[in-house]
Amino acid sequence: MAGLRVRSALVTGANRGIGLGIVKQLLQMPNPPEWVFAACRDPKGERAQELQHLASKHANLVIIPLEVTDPTSIQAAAGRVREHLKDSGLNLLINNAGIANPSSLDTETVENMSQVYATNTTGPLLVSQAFLPLLKKAAQGSSSSELSCSKAAIINMSSIAGSIEEIRLSENVQYISYRCSKAALNMLTKCQSLGYRQHGILCAALHPGWVQTDMGSSAGHKPPLTVDVSVQGMLNVLCSLSEKDTGTFLDWEGKVVHW
Question: Are 89 and 152 in contact (CB under 8 A)?
Fold first, then answer.
């Protein structure tokens, strides 16, 4: 990860699973960010205890309350981050917060589709909008003319489950709302890459693999990847992203995932 040099990074859904894993490894880098913002819905809740413990050991880790489905909460979070960064911008935004509720074509509901879509697709859109001025500031303050995660980037945590080409017609084609939300997130990523390139901001979607998290294990099978292995791979990928990679959909090993 020697190539990833960021002054500041923000991770949503940072209280557990992949989000917490990213925060931990950012803090363990040889040259860690000056600021790591760990955003989560309930910073004082039981599920955020490990994150709170981590913050007590690292002065550069700031926990930010953030509910990605609440515009007021998003704006408040952006304001808090802005206060810490003062005159500098935000280099890296990782939209990781997401939910998945089991559903099939026969059992899917309006309420579930709306809830999952609000978190997995609309949430990253609104969060990116709120932090765009800080991302622009980071890009403007960079000495490099090339796109990179060290300059300014939006990374959306997607899933191969949202790939239309990779889907298999089997009993595993469940989680309809989750699949649809991630397919929409992929389109959002592509749109962001086209719209934000002029501002010097790189945008990409990542598939973390099938990881041993609460969400990954919800189907009753043990996933093959640990959080540490997945996160290490993704951070290595972030180091290598450049101009040619903006608007792409890659997995934790840097391989292209079909849309």
Answer: yes
Residue 186, CA distances (Å) to 181, 232, 245 in order: 9, 22, 14
Give the separation between CA 31 and CA 66, rounded to whole angstroms.
Answer: 27
| Residue 143 to residue 141: CA distance in whole angstroms | 7
Q: Is there a contact between 20 and 14 (Cβ–Cβ < 8 Å)? A: yes
CB half-sphere exposure, 26, CA atoms < 13 A: 31
61-65 and 35-40 strand pairing? parallel
* Whole-angstrom distance, CA of residue 27 vs CA of residue 221: 31
Question: Distance (Å, rounded) from C-alpha 242 to C-alpha 148?
Answer: 5
Residue 214's pLDDT band (boundaries 50, 70, 90)? low
116 sits in the region (left: phi over 0; alpha: psi -120 to 50; else beta) called: alpha
Best CA proximity match to 153, nearest among 2, 9, 254: 9
CA atoms within 13 Å, Cβ hemisphere of 162:
28
Cα 32 to Cα 8: distance, rounded to the nearest angstrom:
9
Can you tell me the distance from the alpha carbon of 259 to that of 221, in angstroms, rounded to the nearest whole number?
Answer: 25
pLDDT in tens, 134-152: 999 999 999 999 999 999 9
Question: Whole-prediction pTM value?
Answer: 0.95
User: Which residues neighbour 121 within 8 Å (Cβ) at sequence distance 6 or greater?
Assistant: 181, 182, 184, 185, 188
* E-assigned strand segments in 137-240: 153-157, 202-207
Angle subtended at Cα 235 by Cα 189 and Cα 17, rounded to the nearest 5 degrees: 85
CA distance 50 to 118: 26
Count other C-beta atoms under 10 Å from residue 91's C-beta: 29
Q: How many residues does this entry show for the chain? A: 259
